[in-house]
Structure formats: structure tokens, C-alpha cells
């Protein structure tokens, strides 16, 4: 009897193994292969430097033939690819990420205390100085209404402090919207030029806003606190202010991520891995050829304490006219 049941169980187990072996399952290697295929296609189509795109694709193909990606998880491969792309191009905007669609130990993400304009705090500080903690560059009608509300609240202040220390960038049109209320000289609108994939000529980078109503701060001093975490569009807000001699930059040198780009996320039905990639598709520089790419925006005043806002207020009070 035992032998009979043992053979039955063994037969069922064998059938189960055969059944499972015929179920198509995407492995880590399949994931990485798919990532590399899509990445190389996007590099060829989107990267603004076509000659360099060919070089990058060839080097990635060679790395594949050398089995550099074998035995790597999708996350490990994405990190290796990101490091490779940034090292080859010195462009910090290049980024490839992999993460599970349904992580087993997912923690609840607490929403950031942030307005629709990416502003987490604004208030009037000592000596009637306005303060704006700007953490994300968002550009849409709701954001523009919020920006005007914030500026209306700070109308009458002796000066403004923009805190960009945690701003990773976003939509540069938000900077342009702010700028119309800060600059009496509209020369800032033609300071930067842009050339993107497929463009034969450089063209104006700044989005133009010319609202007739709204608060103006043309004669008020502007102070911008920036850090190594100030990235992309937020850097251009500081860079424009410095080039136009409109603001004092305090803090530390920014990230140096100057080339805008395009992002894409993808997955297949057979896998629980999601890939996301960001590829630069534009270059931005001043009319004189100055760029922040790989360089960043250096501060006029290097802040050394662990209380940058208080240190900035001391500077403002000391140099107030």
C-alpha cells in the first residue's frame, strides 16, 4: 500500500514539475536583456549627441558580449548602467532605475508637506525678509496661482530668500514664472539658449511670461540658498540670477546637472520589475557659451554652519543697505 501511494505521489510530483517547466517565466537575465535593448534604442533616438550615442551603444553591446551583466539582478544592472553612462558622458541626468512593481516589504510613504507649486514653506522672517522654501519646480495653472499667492503674501518685504537646498528641479517654466516678478530688466529672458535632439539651430530656452498684474520685487534684494542637492531646473534659476547679477547665491556649489531630458518607464506582463530611465535630449548654455553641466553654480558666499538659514539671515542683516 505504501509503495502504491509513494509511486502515485512521485508521478504527480513529476507531472507538476513538467507543467511548471512549460510555464514561461521571465528571469533576471531576460529583464536585463530587455532593459539593454530598450535603452540602446532610446539612446540612438533621443540622446542629443548622436556620435556619442553610437559610441555608448557599441560599448554597451561589447559589455554584453563580455557577459558583464550576467548573474546581475535588474537593480544591480541598472546601477551599473547608470554609473557607466554618467562616467562616459559626465552627465548627471543619465539615470536608469529598476524596482519591483509590488515590493513585499513596502512601507507607507508619507506625503510631503508641499503645495501645488512645490513650495513647502513661506513666511516673513526677522527684519521683514520674505522666505520661500521651494522644493520642486512645478509648472501649471494651479502652480502659477499658488506662486502668485505666495508672492502676494510677501509683498512689502525688504528682500526675498529662496531656499533651493532640496530642490531636484522639474519644469523650468516655473522659474520663468517666478522671474517675471523679480526682474525689471527682461534681458534674462534671452540669456539662455537651447538645442535639442533634431534641432539644427539653437533657440531661446526661457519660456516668456509677461503678466501685467501681480506683485513685483524689481528693486528688492534677492538671496538664493543652494546646495549640492540643487539640481537641474532649480540650478538654472540660481544660474540666471547669478549671471544677471540679480541675486546673491549662498550655500554650496550645485549639482551641475544642466542638460534636460526625457524619461520613460516600462515593464512587461510577465515580470514584476519596473524600469525607469532618463536620457538627456537637450543642451542649454548662455549666449556666450557658458554651461553649468558638470560644473554647477558656485556660491558667492560659502555657508559653513549647520544652520544655513540663520547664517543667511546674519549675512543679510550685515549687508543690508
List keywords for this structure.
single chain, 321 residues, alpha/beta, 2-enoyl-CoA Hydratase, Chain A, domain 1, three-stranded antiparallel β-sheet, 36% helix, elongated
Question: How would you sum up this structure, described in words?
Answer:
The termini are far apart. The chain has a domain at about 120-260 and about 280-320: 2-enoyl-CoA Hydratase, Chain A, domain 1, CATH 3.90.226.10. The protein is of the alpha/beta class. The longest helix has 20 residues, at about 1-20. The chain has helices spanning about 1-20, 30-45, 50-65, 75-90, 140-155, 175-180, 235-245, 310-320, and strands at about 95-100, 120-125, 130-135, 160-165, 190-195, 205, 220-225, 245-250, 260-265, 275-280, 280-285, 300. It is elongated. The protein has eight helices and twelve strands.
In short:
By secondary structure, the chain is an alpha/beta fold.
Determine the CATH superfamily of the domain at 119-261 and 282-319: 2-enoyl-CoA Hydratase, Chain A, domain 1
Strand neighbour order, sheet with most strands: 2-3-4-7-8-12
CATH class (first level) name of the domain at 119-261 and 282-319: Alpha Beta
Give the overall shape, derived from the CA principal axes. Answer: elongated
- The residue-averaged pLDDT reads 88
Q: Please give the count of helices.
A: 8
Radius of gyration based on Cα positions:
26 Å
Q: Which runs of at least 5 residues are low in confidence (pLDDT < 50)?
A: 1-26
Largest sheet: 6 strands, mixed
Reported by name, the CATH topology of the domain at 119-261 and 282-319 is 2-enoyl-CoA Hydratase, Chain A, domain 1
Strand content: 15-25%
Series of H and E elements: HHHHEEEHEHEEEHEEEEEH
Structural class comes to alpha/beta
DSSP summary, beta strand count: 12
- What is the CATH architecture annotation of the domain at 119-261 and 282-319? Alpha-Beta Complex
Fraction in helix = 25-40%
Gap from first CA to last CA: 101 Å
Amino acid at each position: 500500500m505504501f509503495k502504491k501511494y509513494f509511486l502515485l505521489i512521485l508521478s504527480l510530483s513529476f507531472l507538476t514539475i513538467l507543467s511548471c517547466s512549460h510555464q514561461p517565466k521571465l528571469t533576471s537575465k531576460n529583464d536585463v536583456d530587455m532593459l539593454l535593448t530598450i535603452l540602446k534604442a532610446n539612446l540612438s533616438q533621443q540622446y542629443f549627441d548622436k556620435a556619442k550615442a553610437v559610441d555608448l551603444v557599441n560599448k554597451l553591446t561589447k559589455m554584453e558580449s563580455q557577459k558583464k551583466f550576467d548573474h546581475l539582478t535588474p537593480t544591480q544592472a541598472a546601477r551599473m548602467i547608470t554609473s557607466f553612462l554618467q562616467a562616459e558622458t559626465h552627465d548627471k541626468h543619465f539615470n536608469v532605475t529598476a524596482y519591483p512593481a509590488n515590493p513585499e516589504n513596502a512601507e507607507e510613504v508619507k506625503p510631503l508637506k508641499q503645495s501645488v507649486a512645490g513650495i513647502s514653506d513661506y513666511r516673513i522672517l526677522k527684519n521683514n525678509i520674505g522666505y520661500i522654501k521651494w522644493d520642486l519646480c512645478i509648472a501649471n495653472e494651479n502652480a502659477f496661482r499658488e506662486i502668485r499667492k505666495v508672492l502676494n503674501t510677501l509683498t512689502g518685504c525688504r528682500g526675498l530668500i529662496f531656499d533651493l537646498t532640496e530642490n531636484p528641479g522639474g519644469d523650468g517654466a516655473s522659474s520663468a514664472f517666478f522671474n517675471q516678478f523679480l526682474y525689471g530688466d527682461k534681458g534674462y529672458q534671452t540669456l539662455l539658449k537651447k538645442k535639442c535632439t533634431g534641432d539644427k539651430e539653437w533657440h531661446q530656452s526661457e519660456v516668456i511670461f509677461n503678466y501685467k498684474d501681480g506683485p513685483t520685487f524689481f528693486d528688492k534684494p534677492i538671496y538664493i540658498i543652494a546646495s549640492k542637492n540643487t539640481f537641474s531646473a532649480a540650478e538654472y534659476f540660481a544660474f540666471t540670477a547669478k549671471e544677471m547679477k540679480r541675486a546673491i547665491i549662498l550655500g554650496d556649489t550645485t549639482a551641475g546637472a544642466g542638460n534636460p531630458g526625457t524619461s520613460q518607464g516600462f515593464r512587461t506582463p510577465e515580470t514584476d520589475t519596473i524600469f525607469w530611465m532618463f536620457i538627456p535630449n537637450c543642451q542649454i548654455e548662455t549666449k556666450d557659451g557658458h554651461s553649468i553641466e558638470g560644473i554647477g553654480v558656485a556660491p558667492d558666499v560659502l555657508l559653513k554652519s549647520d544652520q544655513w538659514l540663520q547664517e543667511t539671515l546674519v549675512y543679510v542683516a550685515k549687508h543690508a543697505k
